[in-house]
Specification:
A hairpin with a 2-residue loop joins β6 and β7. α2 crosses α5 and α7 crosses α9. Helix content is 50%, strand content 16%. With 428 residues, the protein is of the alpha+beta class. The strands form 4 sheets. Strands 1-3-7-6 form a 4-stranded mixed beta sheet. The protein contains 18 helices and 11 strands. The protein starts with a strand and ends with a helix. It is elongated and about 105 Å long. The chain folds into 4 domains: 135 residues, Arc Repressor Mutant, subunit A; 89 residues, Winged helix-like DNA-binding domain superfamily/Winged helix DNA-binding domain (Arc Repressor Mutant, subunit A, Orthogonal Bundle); 92 residues, no CATH class; 66 residues, no CATH class.
Length: 428
């Protein structure tokens, strides 16, 4: 098989795709997305047809943090090839959907200590990926290297395709579901779709890419009918190992203007931010990226709203020395998780209060039962019969006549009502 070897992944390569391909519907595992992105980035402008790209697993693992930090990375890549081969793509056209296989062939090979993936795209995708003219998007491969979920890849691709306009305009809920390939059974409530999927995904995209996104509700009356996304470029510092921050340079504090402005708002100077970046990079290679620093800011702002912090820089240095907290911090859902924890705490306290109340009621009924049993032990048989007849004539008993003939006091519910009747009428 003729193939073109990809011996090194160029982080600065662009993923040139016609916007119709970007808006297409297809579902891939995150690892499959990663392989596909490398293959698309390797396509040359003057190619006349697709070739088989040979992508070595070592290159994939070295480039993508999610693979680099997983001992089972090779197995994941193998599974990703299955996902690629089963992938179908639906491209919306005027008269319906064009449905095609995304991949022509894909093979995982492991032999003599090395492994690679041979992948060739379906020739039906030629108009969408080769010689692209008109409206197309071309994000850098660097922008997607930290993505963790299928929705991250899809939402970013969709939003990036509107970067030249600055806005998506009004997008209906159904259109969003098409973009993210989710059905009506998922995130049934609009606010669930927004709070649990869109907002965390947007937060993550802002943290790890060079685009800034804001989301606005589109309402019909009081009902949210859709959303509007505004997109713009933002300055970012590359996370590539060849472009790591040089903490010894005086220019460092101003290299990342976005982070500098954010940290300045919570009392951290540019020079202190430089020290935090250097300190975070020594803890974990994954933690030195933009997403972590962004999330560290979110956490710091959250804590500042909850307590008085004299020196935010010293406080964050302490956070960086807290290994369990560091592990939980590296997620775009940090603030959401904090709120979820608070919610669970409130639920636990509520449940505890309910348990106390139920126990109190149980204790109260136990005392009442002892009084009733003591009273009944002093009654003759005829007196008991009189009490039973009186109980039968109550509104409760009359309504349940068909359920207990003859009177069965062994039934817990009936027994409880009987005891309360005797207590109220004869004992108390």
């Amino acid at each position: 098989m003729n193939h073109q070897e990809i011996t090194a992944i160029d982080w600065n390569k662009s993923l040139v795709r016609w916007n119709d391909f970007t808006a297409a519907s297809y579902t891939l595992s995150p690892d499959a997305h990663r392989i596909l992105a490398v293959a698309i980035s390797a396509i040359a402008k003057d190619d006349q047809s697709f070739v088989t790209f040979r992508i070595y697993t070592k290159q994939l693992i070295d480039f993508y943090p999610a693979l680099k930090n997983d001992k089972n990375a090779i197995g994941r890549i193998d599974q990703a090839t299955d996902s690629l081969m089963s992938a179908h793509i639906k491209i919306k056209q005027k008269n319906g959907w064009l449905k095609r296989h995304l991949i022509h062939s894909c093979q995982f090979v492991k032999n003599n200590g090395y492994a690679f993936v041979d992948i060739k795209l379906n020739n039906d995708m030629l108009p969408y990926l080769i010689g692209v003219k008109g409206y197309f998007s071309a994000p850098k491969l660097e922008n997607i290297k930290h993505f963790k979920k299928d929705q991250h890849f899809k939402l970013h691709a969709y939003l990036f395709s509107y970067l030249y306009r600055g806005t998506t305009g009004n997008v209906t809920i159904d259109q969003i579901r098409e973009v993210l390939d989710i059905d009506n059974k998922q995130y049934k409530l609009v606010w669930h779709l927004k709070s649990r999927l869109l907002l965390p995904s947007i937060e993550f995209i802002i943290a790890v890419t060079d685009i800034k996104v804001t989301i606005k509700d589109v309402k019909h009356g009081r009902r949210i009918a859709g959303f509007k996304f505004d997109i713009s470029k933002q300055l970012k510092v590359s996370n590539n190992t060849q472009h790591k921050l040089d903490t010894n340079k005086e220019t460092q504090p101003t290299t990342n203007l976005v982070l500098a402005e954010q940290y300045k708002s919570i009392g951290v100077s540019a020079s202190e931010l430089t020290k935090l970046i250097a300190k975070s990079s020594t803890k974990n290679s994954q933690n030195s990226d933009q997403a972590y620093l962004q999330q560290l800011f979110v956490y710091a702002k959250y804590r500042a709203d909850k307590q008085t912090i004299k020196s935010m820089f010293k406080y964050l240095c302490g956070v960086l020395n807290n290994k369990p907290l560091l592990e939980n911090l590296y997620t775009p859902n940090c603030l959401i998780k904090q709120k979820q924890t608070q919610h669970k705490l409130v639920e636990a306290r509520t449940q505890q209060a309910d348990n106390v109340q139920q126990q109190s009621q149980a204790d109260e009924f136990e005392l009442l039962s002892k009084k009733v049993e003591q009273y009944l032990s002093t009654c003759s048989e005829s007196q008991r019969q009189t009490i039973n007849q009186a109980f039968k004539k109550t509104a409760f008993a009359t309504g349940l006549t068909r359920l207990w003939k003859p009177l069965d006091l062994n039934k817990p519910y009936i027994n409880a009502m009987y005891y309360r009747f005797v207590a109220n009428k004869y004992c108390i």
